[in-house]
Every structure is written in C-alpha cells, then in structure tokens.
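Continuing the batch. This is chain 6 of the set; chains 1 through 5 are on the previous pages. Same settings as before, nothing changed between runs. Recording input and output for traceability.
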Amino acid sequence: MKRLLTLCLMLATAHLIAQPDNLSIYRGPFTMGHSLLPAEQGNWLVGGSAGAFMGYPAFQPYLALIDAQGDVVWERFLNELPYVELGTVTGMAYDSILQVYYVTGYVSGCDYGLPGFLYQLSADGLVNWYVETPYYFSKHYLALRPGQGAVIAGEYPMLVQYYDSSGQLVQEAGLEDEYAFTPRGLAQAGNYTAVLCGERILLIEWNSGGWDVTAETSILGGYGIQYIPEDSTLIVLAEGKVLKLSANLELLDEADISSYGYFYRLACADGRCYALGANTSPPFVALTFDTALNGLYSFDVNGAYNHPMNLATRGGQLFITGNAVPDPQSVFHEGLAEFYSYRGSSLFLKSWGPNGSSGSSGMDVALSDASFGDFHANVQNAFCGFSNQYMDLQITNIKVRVSNNSALPLNQVQLNATFFPCSYICSTIQTINQSYNNLNLLPGASVTLFFPNIQTQPLPYANSTNLCIWASGPNGKLDDHFEDNEACLNFIINGSEEAGPALPEPAIFPNPVSETLNVRFGQELPAGARLYVTNALGQEISGQLMDKPVSEWQLGMGHAPSGLYLLAIELGNQKVTRRFVKQ
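Output for chain 6:
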C-alpha cells in the first residue's frame, strides 16, 4: 500500500512538473505574444497577433492552446472580423461552468480607429459568437462572470460593458464624464466588478435596474488588480507598492516594492503572486510574494532577446509570454512604436520557479560564412523618407552556414532577413523568411543552407547597406545563446548608377469610397504598369495591366464589403501604394 501511495504521489508530481517551456511559435514575420491564461487539464491558452507591416499593420488576432508537453492542441486566427490593422488579443478567461473561452482585444493600429472585439469560443477553439466592441486604439481588459458572461473595459471611450453568455450587451457603465480615468485592469468578485482606473479603484455592482458604483478608493499609479477567492480580497499593483484590499476596497495591508524595480503586470493564483517589471540592470525583473504580501523576492527574467509582454502563474510557477526578437534593446511597450524597429519576432512561452530558477531549452544554433552569388542595385531619383533617392536591391544565390552547437539533433530552424523600405503611410517592414525541416543535423555538425533570392522594395538610398540573416525557433524552441544567431553581408552602393524616372505619385478620391474610386496621376502612368487592389488580408480583389499610358483610372468598389483596402501600382521593380476605406 505504501508503494502504491508513493507511486501515485510520483505520478501526480510528474504531472505538475510537466510544463510547456522555452517554446518558440512562428506564424508570420511578426508573431507576438500578448496574453496568457492557465486553461483546463494543465493546458495554456496564449493570445497575441501574427502578421506583417505592409505600409500599415496587417495583423490577425492569434490564439493557441498548448498542452503540458508543449504541443499545440489547436490554434486559430480570429479572421471573422471585417477589417483589422494590428489585431491583438489582450484579455482572456475560461468559464468552467459553460466550458467556453472569452477573448477580447483591439484591431486599431496606425491611423484608423477601428472597433475592437469580444469572442466566445468552445473548449476546442470553435467560434460560438463574436461582437464588435466600441473601444478604439485601446487595450481591452476582461473579467469573467462564471456561468453568466463577461465584463470588458477600454480607454476610448471609457466604458465598462457587461455581456451575457449569448453575446448580448446587458448593461454599460459610462465612467468618463464623472471619473475621467484610464482603465488598467478588472477583477470580478461575485456580482461586483472592481475597475482599476489608474489613480482610483471603483467597485461596480450590476443589478437588474442598472449599475452603481458602491465603493471607491484612491491609489497612486495602479497597474494591475487580482481577486483572491480564498479570502475574498483584492491584490493591487500600484506605483512602488503592492496593496491588499478587502472586497469593499478597504486597505488591509501594503508592502513597499520600490527598491525592487518598476512593475507593470500582476498575476496571482494558488496563494502566490508575481509582478513583472523593469530595472536599469537587468532590464526585466520579476517579483514574487504570497497573497499575505510576505516573502518578497525578486529575480532576473531577462533573456536580452526575449521581450516579455504578460505573465500568469500556476502551481507556484511563473510563466511569461512575449516576443523573441533579434534585437537586444529591451523595453516594455503597449503600442506600435517599438515594433517599427523590430526585424521580426516569434511568440515565446517560458517559465521560472519562485526562486528564479529557469530551465534550458538545450538548443544552441550559430550562423556564419554568409555569401552571395550576384548583387544588383537600381537607384532612382525620387523622394524616399529623408533621401532624394531610393534604391531597390537584387541579391541572388545567398548561402549561410548553420552550426548545431546543441546537445540534441537539429531538425527544424527558421532563417530570416529584414529590410526597412520607404514608408508612405505608417511603416513598412519587408521580411524574407524560410523554414528548414527534416535537417537531422547532429550535435557539433554544420550545414550550408540556401536562402531565398531577394528583391527588395524601394529602400532609402545609402552608400552601403547590410543583409543580415538570423536564425530562430530551433526545433520550435528558444535558443539558449541567441547572440551568435546572425551572419551579415555588407554591400557598397554607387548612387550615380542606373538612375531613372520614378513611378508617378497617385492621388485617390473619395476616401472613404462608396461606389467608385478615382485615381489621378501627376504625370502619365506608362504602359506596362499594373494596378491592383488588395484587402486587409493581402488578397487581391481586382487588377489591371495598362496597355497604354493613362493619367486617370477608375475602380468600381460598390461590390466590395466594407473595410480597409490597399491600392498598389507596380512598374518594373518600382511600387507605390495608397490605402483607402470602403464604407
């Protein structure tokens, strides 16, 4: 009997220890993790976005359910939305009573305010329903009302909305006029929703007759809030402090955390809390403590190239999702500003114990000996950024040596390169990627891999430019030593060579358009130019090759659904784009 109990204990312990760790998920040139949720049966739901910058952000909200062994159970792009820019999942919850997931987020990204979204999905990732939410350019926060629905909040406008489990808007609390604060988090306690509004916490009671703010308290710089069901209290992450409040917002205890760093994210479960933040050195740190605010302990979670975005905890472990990038500059960010300097990313999931220990992925890939066969630069006299010339490059027969310094065979790796073309609307980042599978490269061995030929989009002119190829996701894992994952080539450009006429700049009107889009050129568009229109997913919906010079062009858009579209004009290696909206 004793042996049986011991065996059962060992099996139970093994189940708890089995956790997905050091995962690298790549589903597009930029695959980014933004939210993380402990799910049923030891699984994890990761929410984020995947896509590219093509003059404007073209990203779909992305979800993946990952089991304890690190395998993807199911994944889904939330592509039912009629239009998106930077589609991003920012809030998630699982209702164990109804066995459904609620997922919310935003789609605004550059210069258009677009509605956000709230989804309900089945346990196997099928969409039950979705609704558009009224928040523009705004992170969405979500709190679960088990068996009843979900509460969400956003900044623009400052509303708190309660949806039932069928997707119907039950009640809406407008707080902007009276309170004028920005939401930073939600926590649900029975029929009450605690709303963290930066400098204040509000307690909203939902009832059949409407809603009421039944309590409020002021704090200094709130960043996160969590409900602790074991003792019906709230843990609040504030500026320089962590607070413990009663369910009616009375202060029970507080702890000074200012000496540990600056913290912006909070997660609590199973009697333990983690805060995620930054310091001057190292850039990223975590702070752990129990729900009585005892046992404060901080540790480094910096991987230099792994930029954390959000956290969760289960069984005393800290889990972080974020963006594995080739750029070591590490900062917290909410919007697009930092992504405009990125050269690509993969979504990562990594764990730490409460003592700061973290396991190794066992993977170490190094790149060297980059070479090419032919290089050609075409320089044009036209405005591009801060230059009066632009260039497009052709590079062929590109090779790079990949060495497996891991203790395990290398079967899979991703090679990437990035260029920053002329930007006319928001930003464009041209990424070239190639996946290599079934390599079976033994430890200590190396292989030369061919990289795709490159034809760049127009780039700002420079006397020299670099082609840097970097490796990511070896065997679907993070690399333990990312600093040697890159090999570069340098090219010298002669600006006086091959200068020619530039593609004429188009003017489009009306924008937004209902029926007919008019395109007018400052000078004639030569014969041989191609005009086409794509939707927000990059799918071409209309196109025409010009058989004679034209100065004007018209496109019927009455048949097209409402949303964002891109007009592109190509002539040889030149390309000009304009974005418009069909209403």
